[in-house]
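Can you give me the bound-state structure? Components:
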Amino acid sequence: MDTILVRYSEIGLKGKNRTYFENKLVNNIRECMKKNKVRFSNLHKSRGRILLYSLPKAATYLKNVFGIASLSIAKEVELNHKAIEKAVEEASRKERFKTFRISVQRLNKNFQKTSMQLEAELGAFVVKRFRKKVKLENPDLNIHIEITDKAYIFTETVFGFRGLPISTQGKVISLIEDKESLLSTILVMRRGCSAVLVGFKDFDIEPVKRFAYGFEVKFIKLKKFEDIEDIAKRNKIKALVVGQTTETIKNLETDLLLLRPLVGYSKLELIQLYKQFGIK
Amino acid sequence: MDTILVRYSEIGLKGKNRTYFENKLVNNIRECMKKNKVRFSNLHKSRGRILLYSLPKAATYLKNVFGIASLSIAKEVELNHKAIEKAVEEASRKERFKTFRISVQRLNKNFQKTSMQLEAELGAFVVKRFRKKVKLENPDLNIHIEITDKAYIFTETVFGFRGLPISTQGKVISLIEDKESLLSTILVMRRGCSAVLVGFKDFDIEPVKRFAYGFEVKFIKLKKFEDIEDIAKRNKIKALVVGQTTETIKNLETDLLLLRPLVGYSKLELIQLYKQFGIK
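Here's the bound-state model for the whole set.
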């Protein structure tokens, strides 16, 4: 099994609530692995990172967990030069490349060598061992090394959607009628909200499900508009999310706080968001 | 005076209302020039473009007119090969470059030569005349030629914010309290709304003014929250815009339709938007 190194960003700004957000993210990562039936073990926090052992395919699911900034499938080795060198050698042997660079990030300042020393030494090693050329800008291969309690060596980074872990913020009802409302729901989920999906007609909520870690997504069919207030009351929900844009804005007969996340986006940005979140 | 070639995008999707949107954009461009005291003449539509004659500095103001996708300061010449060649020669003489390419866009299909023919002939001309090298990807200099009723030759394109021309959509009241509300206001303006700005304290609305073409921006000081309803009634306004984000959401005592354009954006996206719209 590989080590998966998960980075988060916005949570870092949360000050003394940081642990709360980190724990929610760990929880949502666990849920993502279970829902998608991917084996994993030893999921834990370590020096501003979340780590787990799993299979490479885990990355394709994990990138949809809101709160994750990026992740890498890494080789984990002990904190000594020989072990790191060996992992760098393995990574170099696996890839075809002409030019390369070594990028070291030392989160653990106790390690005896500085980032620059390590980069220079390991760069020289790859040059000698494989007869390749160092290139700092746009190399064919970028070998990254993160130094925390152990050393993590990787060559690829998968980007996530950032945002806040679902269930760190309030709960909303989401009226699903069209692809606009799917996008609205996903955007509010990325801000940490969980959502109860409702609608007058059955609707394919697959695009929402793909990001629904941190709550159990369900779709409730409405008979009449007033049902929304009942569902809100039963679930202690105060806000209703709709897909209205500036051009389709209208008032709805409800005491709920109405959210229209799409009103600020330009057409081009909306097209990009549909693509980004896989909404067709 | 140079010719300024203005391109718009989203308006193109508007079908039979297209003329209405185009005319609003022309009107807002005129207002932008007047408000900023930039001399201009002969502002008109031509084959999916808006053209005017003005000074290069006009571009720095025009890029803030919502609805504009991009603009270029161009040399306008008659539709014949000799005149185009001469303009290409002038453009080449003005710049320092080693590699170049010619990019022709022929919006007027009556012109006798195809885009490819023109690119090949003019490319060969610059190679011979200046002893430079053609490079299709990332050339030092890209000489563009747009063929409509005349030919327009330019080497730079300034990007605008797209969106819809202000005053093509409804009017809103905007409660200005912080930089979040400035951004909210600008986002809704980019969707074509005009705004009446209100607030309990004086606030620097300069960032909003920079985009306020298509309506007269003013700031009304409130004594109490209920004043908002009066202002709305007097101005026949139905919506109130606030700067609330998912984390600062709260209900307000009002019958107006409440808009919170920021609820869908992630922190990183908000930081980018502040920068993009010059909000500090």
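A couple of observations. Chain A has three domains: 2-77, 81-149, 171-276. Chain A touches chain B through 34 residues (CB under 8 Å).
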